[in-house]
Amino acid sequence: MKLITTAVVLSTISFLASCGGGGDRTVPEAEPAGSTSAVIGDHEVHFNAQSTDQLSPQVARAYKIVRSKNRAILTISVLKLESKESVLAEVSVKTVNLTGQLKNVIMRKINEGESIYYIGETPVANRETLIFELSVTPEGVEEPSPLRFKRQFYSD
């Protein structure tokens, strides 16, 4: 009986190996969503990039943004870590795609009541991945803090 069990186990292993089971073949894991915030000193920076077609027509109109699957909007806000209050900041962005092409993103400040945030737009192609390199200097801080994230956009 022990010989039969060993033979069955060996044949099962052999069968799995011949079918691609086992060995170095593994199912790739899904990549987690990228972060959308970072702590820099006494501040928290929130950032997001999405296609502008995801904005409501009212929001797009209010902020003079063209809604399109082929345009991306970058949004950045800087908050005091303890109080969660918006603060002014010097924000600059360098954006490139995976082939190294520089994408122009001009940031503009938006004041909305007590909230302050920065937005910028850029064209994107289908399946294009953009790497956003941010430099953020909250008011009262001397040295800028670098932040980096990437997002892929789909327009089909």
Walk me through what this model shows.
This protein is mainly beta and 156 residues long. It has a single domain, classed as Sandwich (Immunoglobulin-like), CATH 2.60.40. The chain is built from 2 helices and 9 strands; from the N terminus they run H-E-E-H-E-E-E-E-E-E-E. It has helices at 2-18, 57-62, and strands at 37-40, 43-51, 71-80, 89-97, 102-103, 108-112, 115-123, 128-138, 145-153. Strand 6 and strand 7 (115-123) form a beta hairpin. Mean pLDDT is 83; it is low at 1-32.
Count of alpha and pi helical runs: 2
Helix fraction, binned, reads: 10-25%
Q: Spans of 5+ residues with little confidence (pLDDT < 50)? A: 1-32
Strand content: 35-45%
What keywords describe this structure?
156 residues; mainly beta; Immunoglobulin-like; five-stranded antiparallel beta sheet; four-stranded antiparallel beta sheet; 15% helix; globular; disordered N terminus
Can I get a quick summary?
This protein is mostly beta strands and 156 residues long. It has two helices and nine strands. The strands form two sheets. Strands 1-2-3-7-6 form a five-stranded antiparallel sheet, with no helix packed on it.
How would the blueprint of this fold be written?
Blueprint: H1 2-18, E1 37-40, E2 43-51, H2 57-62, E3 71-80, E4 89-97, E5 102-103, E6 108-112, E7 115-123, E8 128-138, E9 145-153
Antiparallel strand pairs: 1-2, 2-3, 3-7, 4-5, 4-8, 6-7, 8-9
